[in-house]
Design goal:
five-stranded antiparallel β-sheet; five-stranded parallel β-sheet; about 30% helix
């Protein structure tokens, strides 16, 4: 069958009169084959007259697209329309029959879509139909029931099914869900869906599947056998109805066109309903996979699951979570279901909040299970206050992304790609995570709107950390969730905490719904729950001969009334009755209590009743056990087993208590969830609230003071660790491979959380606590690090020791020994985490030997005779250098620190590297900047972007973590960009160039705001933006400083002249009152920012002197002011970084920091405690501001040490280096034995002769030298005296940074971050290593001698 039609013309509005080359494209039922008219030639003349014959029947849908040809054969869609052939035939009949013009309304596309209403006649396509007789005959065939008619029958059947009664209680949620979906769709369309035989047939089959309803009304005994099949039918009905809704154009996306994909969906639904119908008719269960039209099964499902695990998601496995009782909460769940599945509802976040114990979590769990059955649950995350892994705001977005990646392979692939591009995603800001892990992956799914809703559930958001900890997360959810596709719905449950309410309430996309505990529906649900539980209790106590209708409607009403609408009251009361010896007696106790004034009083009342009956409170021993055990349960960071509680509760003396915790806990089944082998926790968070508030619990015997019990648990953890910790407690052997070993809970929990419990204990001045901590650190600090490393938490030792130090400094200001140890522990972890995280034993074999000899940690643990040691010590004091990181390939000419302190950006020739400021690890792959060197970079104040300038004059804007360019290059300069700075609000970006110009850019769009600004006569080298105004300053080779208004682009002061030389660097003080300039005349000058005059240093009894700072020996390249405004850092060509007291202009000469080559840039960290520098030696260094120690070991040579050799007895070492000297050292003490011996060229080989009486050396030219060891006199040397003739190869070698015994291939130690090793020699159990900075490290391994002996 076919249709014969002509495309006559198009009638378009006046705004289209300039269009030419327009044509009409026709598509039949979404097929890939298309037919096109010829193109128009005259603008505004849209007449064709082309005639076509197309395969079609009355149900065929034709799509007409009006298009326009552009250059390079591109096509632009202007407007479109879809029309079933049956509608065209009906219109033709009404207009007078054959060959009459039929108008078809066109829908404008693109920028014209908003210019015309749906009813406008300005956009029309006129066609004619020819020879329609055969089609008209087909139309007159007997009608098939429409989709709307079938849906109406299904609605009736479902209503009849739900009226059956308690027999279908378990299936009621599914029936209600199906009834809601079908009814809502039927109300929208009511038979107005465009007719299509395939959809009619599908809806008819779905209707026929419900014939079973009449049978089960007569034979309800059949229901249990059919329950699974009936639930599957209801679920399949929901999915199929949503599919029909999308086909009708009333769904989330535009109306679906008929295609191979649609045919496949219809076929799958048909097979599913056929199987379900057969199962219901025969009563035989048939295994059939339910169909979801959400995911196209033809897409490749492979994605990198291992990558998703790198997100570090929280564990959300908890099968014990309870659902709503059958036939309760149906109104709220139905509201949530309708909100989640109806496209007409525009709020994409549903915030369900209510009083503690109102049943929010059970509603969330029931909703999750319903949507899981529909295969539309993207993620279910639930927070738990007492579980550390489930109360951290930082894990939410990453956990959602992990679940969604598992849920949909396309999302998994997109998220995996983000993880590959940004390995440090776990450290990224939450807003960035939401954008990159949720919004962008969803946007990458081409047909996401047509696939129907996906539900994300976040339960108990109020248990997600403290209000301050979750502040940023709440803001991100509220502000970023509208950017998700409309099909993504987020259900959030929580208490109506003030911080959550204040963030959520202003946002129109968040639909707030409070659980009204006083509503009739809620009270009926509570009553239904109590009724069901009483039935269960009556059956459990069959020997008590309770009446069948026990306890009677009146007493159930009494319990329900006392519940005050709280499910937690009802469940606690039922457990209280159930756990009693006599249920009747306990029921009477509850009913004899007075009525409560409000919900909180009701909750307190049931807990008081439960506790009063739990034990013998007149017995002091019971009260003591109760408080000790409940204190541990309440404040523990993770739920603990009974065994772990007993181990902790054994006491400081180590003697186990006579009464195990289960002896007490077994009396508390009403309020605690427990089993002998499972973690113990409170039944509901409201009980923890009750028992930790003295006003509510009312008795000292019950009151749990959180702070006091945190301190107690901290002390118990310390005592427990003191008993079990020891060196190499895992019996490990040092190796270069990663160690995996499980540790028992009695070690892992105390090791991980003892510091946190101290921190949460608040104020403490108990002297014995300080003593316990001090003893523990002195005996077990290294053992604790070993255990943390075995737990794969080595990196956490830094943060934990910082937290411990702050707590000790706050509460024990007079405990100098303890404070010193804590301070030293922080430095130890900062310095050597990168070492001991490689293997637990490296804390002994590597970190300790290289620790400064005067440090508290070294002095405490150095006497272990089995540990390696450095002859003479590696260094005396802690180095001011905290971290050094480098990438070969070019100078570091610019650096910038993020304002949150997490990242450091640095240039490296033609790329930008982003580093983790704590670990020194690369956050992501370097960003390539093109074919020109990158000359300047700067972080935006909000840390979202990095701006870069290049040698070509281009300015680029990058996403700080993904490394992708966010705008096209900003072209405004003719030569290299030397200066870049953001305005304080990140809205403007200022660039300065060698071409003498300045440009002010809009940082959001990349468009010019002002410029090029002209004024300087030579290249502009530096910029600085005032922190308190819209002013910025520029410095130039013309020796001038100019002040500009960024808002107007005008100069606001006369030029400031720096008479001595070029202005190479600029900075503002933090209050914006002063400008600081650095110059190639080696001086730093301080100016009044408002007047442009040089400031003077007041001096008593002397003439005031100008604030000109002198100290550098060469050009000053960079300046930085500390956040406090008290320190100035300057970087110079003379390889130094100097620190100055800004108010007085005095240099801190003892705090000079040094690089090997000129220092090009300097910056302060966000807290002002660290200075970051970049140098032409291709390194970025992070320095401690206050430390005064040397960078490394004692510098023994003045240049690289390239060659070393031991004497024949191993007691002496000879060294030669690039400083043209030969030196001799004591292998045991490391001290020099003779004065340096001079060569004319660099040393190329050194040795002792076999007797040890002569020192031998050869220089780069091959000349051989000899000296007498005793007299140091130079001797005659023959060619055969060349040191190579006396080479002795010891057993210890270097493999990278690892020291290895080559005779056994066993690893002995790992060199920490220090100057590169350039030479080495070994003898027996010792190895000497020459470093690039002139130092020599002599490392001894005493244990090696024991093994070999």
């Amino acid at each position: 069958m076919s249709i014969d039609l002509s495309i006559v013309k198009a009638e378009l509005p006046g705004c289209t009169t300039q269009w030419s080359k327009c044509f009409v494209q026709i598509q039949v039922d979404g097929s890939s084959s298309i037919i096109c008219t010829k193109s128009t030639k005259t603008p505004g003349n849209y007449i064709w007259g082309d005639r076509f014959s197309l395969p079609a029947d009355p149900e065929t849908v034709l799509r007409f697209e009006l298009k326009r040809k552009h250059l390079f054969l591109q096509q632009q869609l202007l407007a479109f329309a879809e029309a079933p052939v049956s509608d065209l035939l009906a219109t033709q009949q009404k207009s007078g029959g054959r060959d009459q013009g039929i108008p078809i309304h066109l829908r404008p596309f693109g920028k014209h879509s908003g210019q015309v209403s749906e009813s406008s006649g300005d956009w029309q396509l006129i066609i004619c139909l020819h020879d329609t007789e055969s089609l008209l005959i087909a139309v007159e065939q007997p009608p098939v029931a429409s989709v709307g008619e079938c849906l109406a029958e299904i609605v009736t059947k479902l209503e009849g099914f739900m009226a059956v009664g308690d027999a279908i209680a378990g299936m009621h949620p599914y029936a209600n869900m199906a009834w809601k979906t079908v009814t809502c769709f039927y109300v929208i369309i009511k038979g107005q869906v465009d007719r299509d035989t395939r959809l009619d047939d599908l809806s008819g089959l779905m209707r026929d599947s419900y014939h079973f309803v009449e049978d089960i009304k007569s034979f309800p005994e059949r229901i249990p056998a059919l329950q699974g099949t009936i639930c599957n039918l209801m679920t399949q009905t929901v999915e199929c109805t949503m599919f029909l809704r999308e086909c009708s154009g009333h769904g989330f996306g535009e109306r679906l066109l008929f295609s191979a994909w649609m045919d496949r969906q219809i076929n799958q639904f048909t097979q599913s309903f056929t199987a379900l119908k057969q199962s219901l008719e025969t009563g035989i269960s048939i295994q059939t996979a339910l169909v979801s039209f959400r995911v196209d099964e033809t897409v490749n499902k492979l994605f990198n699951a291992q990558n998703l695990m790198k997100l570090g998601p929280a564990d959300m496995e908890d099968p014990s979570r309870s659902e709503c009782y059958p036939k309760t909460r149906m109104d709220i769940i139905a509201n949530i279901f309708e909100w989640a599945t109806m496209p007409t509802i525009k709020n994409n976040v549903f915030w369900l909040h209510g009083f503690p114990g109102a049943g929010k979590s059970t509603i969330a769990t029931s909703t999750a299970n319903l949507f899981r059955d529909l295969r539309r649950l993207g993620s279910f995350v639930f927070f738990t206050r007492g579980v550390a892994a489930r109360n951290d705001p930082a894990v939410l977005i990453r956990t959602l992304a992990y679940h969604l990646g598992e849920f949909d392979h396309r999302l998994g692939s997109a998220i995996s790609k983000v993880i590959e591009e940004v390995p440090s995603i776990r450290q990224a800001p939450l807003r960035w995570q939401f954008q990159k892990l949720l919004i962008e992956p969803f946007s990458s799914i081409e047909h996401c709107p047509r696939e129907g809703p996906i539900l994300i559930i976040i339960d108990a958001l109020d248990e997600c950390g403290s209000s301050s900890a979750r502040e940023e997360l709440l803001k991100v959810i509220a502000s970023e969730s509208p950017c998700l596709p409309p099909t993504i719905r987020i259900l959030i449950t929580s208490r109506a905490e003030k911080d959550i309410y204040s963030v959520f309430s202003p946002h129109p996309n968040i639909l707030a719904h409070e659980i009204d505990i006083k509503s009739t529906a809620n009270e009926e649900d509570v009553r239904a729950y109590i009724h069901h539980r009483m039935v269960d209790i009556q059956r459990q106590n069959d020997l008590l001969a309770l009446p069948p209708d026990w306890p009677g409607e009146a007493r159930i009403d009494g319990l329900a009334f006392r519940a005050s609408g709280l499910f937690v009251w009802a469940s606690t009361a039922c457990r209280y009755i159930e756990n009693g010896q006599d249920p009747e007696e306990r029921l009477s106790q509850l009913l004899n209590t007075a009525l409560y004034a409000d919900a909180e009083a009701a909750l307190d009342g049931i807990y008081i009743t439960a506790l009063e009956s739990a034990g013998k409170w007149e017995d002091d021993a019971f009260g003591i056990d109760f408080r000790e055990i409940l204190g541990i349960v309440i404040v523990s960071e993770n739920p603990l087993t009974a065994k772990m509680i007993d181990l902790l509760n054994a006491g400081v003396g180590g003697k186990k208590k006579k009464r195990p915790c289960l002896h007490t806990i077994r009396h508390l089944g009403t309020v605690l969830q427990w089993a002998e082998d499972r973690p113990i926790c409170v039944m509901h968070p409201s009980f923890a609230d009750f028992i930790t508030e003295r006003r509510r619990c009312g008795r000292d015997a019950w009151f749990i003071d959180r702070s006091a019990h945190h301190l107690r648990v901290a002390r118990l953890c310390i005592a427990c660790l003191g008993v079990v910790l020891k060196k190499n407690m895992g019996g490990l052997k040092l190796s270069m491979s990663v160690v995996m070993q499980e540790l028992p809970d009695d070690i892992t929990y105390p090791a991980r959380y003892w510091v946190d419990h101290l921190w949460n204990s608040g104020a403490c001045s108990v002297q014995s606590v300080a003593q316990e901590i001090y003893i523990f650190l002195r005996e077990h600090f290294l053992h604790w690090i070993e255990v943390m490393t075995m737990m794969k938490k080595a990196r956490q030792t830094i943060g934990l020791m910082i937290r411990l130090k702050e707590w000790i400094d706050t509460h024990y200001t007079d405990e100098e020994a303890l404070r010193s140890f804590a301070k030293d522990a922080v430095r130890f972890c900062q310095a050597y985490t990168h070492v001991y995280e490689q293997h637990p034993l490296l804390v002994y074999q590597s970190a300790l030997p290289f620790t400064p000899t005067t440090s508290v940690v070294f002095q405490t643990f150095k006497d272990d005779a089995d540990l390696p040691y450095v002859a003479g010590g590696f260094r005396e004091h802690w180095s001011p250098l905290l971290i050094e990181f480098s990438r070969p390939g070019g100078n570091v000419v610019s650096i910038s620190c993020s304002s949150d302190g997490q990242h450091i950006a640095s240039t490296n020739s033609r790329s930008i590297s982003i580093w983790d400021s704590t670990s020194g690890e690369l956050v992501r792959k370097p960003m390539a900047g093109g074919n020109h060197d990158i000359t300047a970079i700067v972080f935006s104040p909000n840390n979202h972007h990095i701006a870069s300038g290049s040698g070509s004059g281009a300015v680029r804007l990058w996403d700080a973590l993904s490394g992708k360019e966010v705008l096209s290059p900003m072209e405004g300069h003719q030569e290299a960009v030397y200066g870049l700075v953001f305005s304080n609000d990140a809205s403007m970006l200022v660039s300065a160039s060698k071409d003498k110009t300045i440009v002010v850019w809009d940082a959001d769009t990349g468009s010019r705001v002002h410029g090029p600004l002209i004024g300087h006569q030579k290249a502009i080298l530096s910029l600085a933006f005032s922190p308190v105004a819209t002013r910025f300053v520029s410095g130039s080779r013309d020796k001038s400083i100019r002040t500009w208004d960024a808002a107007t682009g005008e100069e606001v002061l006369l030029p400031i002249m720096h008479r001595g030389g070029s202005v190479t660097s600029l900075a503002y003080t933090t209050d914006g009152s002063k400008i600081i300039s650095g110059s190639d005349d080696r001086t730093i000058r301080i100016w009044d920012a408002h007047k442009g005059t040089l400031l003077y240093r007041p001096q008593a009894d002397l003439q005031p002197s100008p604030l000109i700072l002198r100290g550098h020996n060469s050009d000053i390249y960079s300046l930085a002011v500390s956040p406090s405004g008290t320190l100035l850092a300057s970087a110079s060509k003379d390889t130094s970084v100097r620190l100055w007291d800004l108010p007085t202009g005095t240099e801190y000469s003892h705090l000079i920091r040094q690089h090997r080559l000129p220092v090009r840039c300097v910056a302060f960290s966000h807290d002002g405690k660290r200075v970051v520098t970049g140098s032409q030696d291709a390194t970025v260094r992070v320095w401690d501001v206050e430390s005064v120690g040397s960078m490394g070991g004692q510098r023994l040579h003045k240049g690289l040490v390239s060659h070393l050799a031991f004497s024949a007895d191993g007691k002496r070492i000879v060294s030669g280096g690039l400083d043209k000297t030969v030196r001799v050292w004591c292998a045991e003490s490391g001290r020099a034995l003779i004065e340096p011996l001079r060569l004319e060229r660099e040393a190329n080989a050194v040795a002792f002769d076999d007797e040890g009486g002569r020192i031998l050396a050869a220089d780069r030219d091959g000349a051989v030298f000899a000296w007498d060891m005793e007299s140091r006199e130079e001797l005659m040397a023959a060619p055969e005296d060349h040191p190579s003739a006396y080479t002795r190869e010891g057993p210890l070698v270097l493999e990278g940074k690892w020291i290895v015994d080559k005779t056994t291939n066993e690893a002995l130690s790992l060199l920490p971050n220090m100057s590169p090793a350039k030479g080495r020699a070994s003898y027996g159990n010792r190895i000497a290593i020459g470093l690039a900075n002139g130092s020599i490290v002599i490392l001894h391994f005493p244990e090696l001698l024991k093994v070999k002996s």
